[in-house]
Design goal:
The longest helix is centred in the first third of the chain and has 17 residues. The protein has three domains: about 190 residues, Rossmann fold, CATH 3.40.50; about 160 residues, ANL, N-terminal domain (Rossmann fold); about 120 residues, GMP Synthetase, Chain A, domain 3 (2-Layer Sandwich), CATH 3.30.300. It is globular, with a radius of gyration of 24 Å. Strand 17 and strand 18 form a beta hairpin. By secondary structure, the protein is an alpha/beta fold. The strands form seven sheets. The chain has a five-stranded parallel sheet with strand order 4-3-5-6-7, with helices on both faces. It has a five-stranded mixed sheet with strand order 12-13-14-15-16. Strands 17, 18, 20, 21 and 22 form a five-stranded antiparallel sheet that branches. Helices cover about 35% and strands about 20% of the residues.
């Protein structure tokens, strides 16, 4: 027996004996064997839920893997996925792993030039195309390269009718299930996740199989989130599966726990699907929780505080609201991707719903800090996770972290890798302070701009302050080369339909409340209410709905001087 053969056998044996050395693919194979008939995934088709057990999922994934192997691609080839969340997305991810390749999933709401750029940058050999909104598919179908192998998912009613590529059903019928899965080593490349890119071109974050193994095993050991502290594991998948949070908290966690993943059918059906599932763990972005809040206030209005103060009604009302939201069984409710206003967290606490903040980024697998249960602190984004280290650069104030689950670098981009990975530390790009084991964020290094007075402005804290207003949907502080910072704001649906004098009074009061906490050179001078919503289509938002500051400046900077000289403190544009 050769030395390399011995090493391979030892790697597999370790994977079976030592939980810390098992990849999430091995956990899937274990569930496939031990929970063959248990429900693994649930896909909604209108009012009907189609259920798939672990054995069925394994069979389909193995057949797709057999086909991928038949393509005779080089080992560890990059394979792209372009689809909204669905049953077939997870099967594709499994098949790619089983065949010994690397998944490079994309956001399902790209514009044509973004898809062309990502296909080129990822060097993808195969492209899986699945569930896409009809307008999105109509604008993307003409940019699919002719020399790439395309596999299309079965048609999902109400979505784009993809005709390009080899049909999924044909592959299932023509290929036997793969018997010998190519078990990866922990240091093998697992996935390349392209960031949504608020500035510059998207970066391909490379994560090995060690990343999810280290992060989830840390969770098993310390029970920080509470994922494993349950009897029934019900996951609800609707955030893009190529986003690191969904990949870890839903897909990978389901492999580890043997839980069930239920999908949202569409954005319109999301509230109904969530209410039907009543998951035990749920994660969302602040914007969704704000929309939930607005829906509740729209139904109950000013009576809410009164009703909650009446003991005989309070418990009933809280239970009814939780059930209506779909959170009646939820043991873990997380919020992340952007700082959550304390006022919003306090409002939910009155309903008996604790929003626990998570802070992380794709580069560290989404794991840096977490707000402990029942220990909510104002002004911080959580306590530093066990097995993670965080410090702040004394010169720049930048937050640095290191952990066993950080990326190995950016794909084919040594220059940008060297800029953020130094001596084992990940330079996050965020500015902050460490306080008694908790992390407080104070802004973004790259967002800082200089006014015409030569003063540097950090816009993020100002924006977070304004986010507490229910009249604000999107906010961005600008003012490069202007005398004072200017706040651009897109009103929420509540703000658009509320009495405008009330809205203006609220915004003015919020501005005054903020300004007294700032040095005079940082005072917001003008508020500009922007009538055009910022969206992916008009190029202002990334696929994860973050604001592209360079796009904001490109669109509005010619007006900064004019607005600064205006006699009005609040301007409509």
């Amino acid at each position: 027996m050769q030395a390399s053969d011995t090493e391979n056998i030892e790697e597999v044996n370790i994977g079976i004996a030592d939980a810390a050395a098992k990849t999430h693919l091995e956990y899937f194979l274990q569930q496939e064997k031990e929970k063959a008939q248990a429900v693994f995934m649930r896909q909604p088709y209108g009012s009907v839920w189609k259920e798939f057990n672990w054995k069925q999922a394994g069979d389909e994934a193995r057949r797709i893997a057999t086909y991928l192997i038949s393509l005779n691609l080089p080992a560890r080839s990059n394979i792209a996925i372009l689809s909204k969340n669905c049953y077939h997305w997870v099967l594709t991810d499994l098949a790619i792993m089983m065949a010994g390749h690397v998944s490079t999933p994309f956001f399902p709401n790209l514009v044509p030039n973004e898809l062309s750029q990502l296909l080129e940058r990822s060097e993808a050999r195969v492209l899986f195309i699945g569930k896409l909104d009809t307008p999105i598919w109509d604008r993307l179908k003409d940019v699919i390269p002719a020399d790439i192998d395309v596999i299309r998912f079965p048609f999902y009613e109400g979505n784009g009718n993809v005709k390009t590529g080899k049909p999924w059903e044909e592959i299932l019928a023509g290929n036997a299930p793969l018997q010998k899965v190519q078990l990866p080593k922990l240091n093998d490349l697992w996935t390349i996740l392209f960031t949504s890119g608020t500035t510059g071109a998207p970066k391909g974050v490379m994560l090995t199989y060690k990343a999810p193994a280290a992060l989830l095993n840390m969770e098993k050991k310390y029970n920080q989130i509470g994922i494993f502290n349950q009897k029934d594991f019900q996951f609800f998948s609707y955030l893009p599966l190529n986003h690191i949070a969904e990949r870890m908290i839903v897909e990978t966690a389901a492999f580890f726990t043997g839980g069930t993943i239920s999908f949202a059918e569409s954005l319109e059906k999301f509230p109904v699907n969530l209410q039907s599932v009543q998951p035990t763990i749920f994660m969302s972005v602040p914007r969704i929780y704000t929309k939930f809040q607005m829906a509740i206030l729209d139904k109950i209005g000013k009576k809410l505080n009164l009703l909650l103060s009446i003991p005989i009604l309070s418990g009933y009302l809280k239970s009814k609201i939780k059930t209506g939201l779909g959170l009646s069984r939820c043991k873990v409710i997380l919020t992340g991707a952007a700082p959550t206003p304390q006022a919003l967290k306090d409002w939910y606490l009155k309903l008996g719903i604790e929003l626990r903040e998570v802070y992380g980024m794709t580069e560290n697998s989404g794991g840096c800090t977490l707000m402990p249960a029942a220990e909510t602190r104002s002004g911080v984004v959580g306590r530093i996770l066990p097995e993670a280290e965080v410090r702040v650069d004394e010169t720049t104030g930048e937050v640095l972290m290191r952990a066993p689950w950080t990326m190995t670098g950016y794909f084919r981009d040594e220059e940008r890798t060297a800029a953020v990975l130094k001596d084992g530390w990940l330079y996050t790009g965020d500015k902050g302070e460490v306080q008694d084991g908790y992390l407080k964020l104070t802004g973004r290094v790259s967002d800082t701009f200089k006014t015409s007075k030569g003063k540097f402005i950090s816009p993020a804290p100002m924006e977070w302050f304004f986010a507490k207003s229910i009249f604000a949907e999107q906010v961005c502080v600008v003012g490069h080369a202007a005398p004072q910072p200017i706040l651009l704001i897109v009103l929420s649906e509540v703000g658009k339909h509320e009495d405008q004098e009330k809205v203006l009074a609220n915004l003015t009061a919020t501005k005054n409340e903020l300004n007294v906490t700032l040095p005079s050179y940082s005072h917001i001078n003008k508020i500009v209410i922007v009538k055009e919503d910022w969206s992916i289509d008009n190029g202002i938002l990334t696929p994860t709905l973050k604001i592209k500051r360079n796009a904001i400046d490109n669109k509005y900077d010619k007006y900064y001087e004019q607005w600064s000289l205006s006699q009005s403190d609040i301007i409509s544009f």
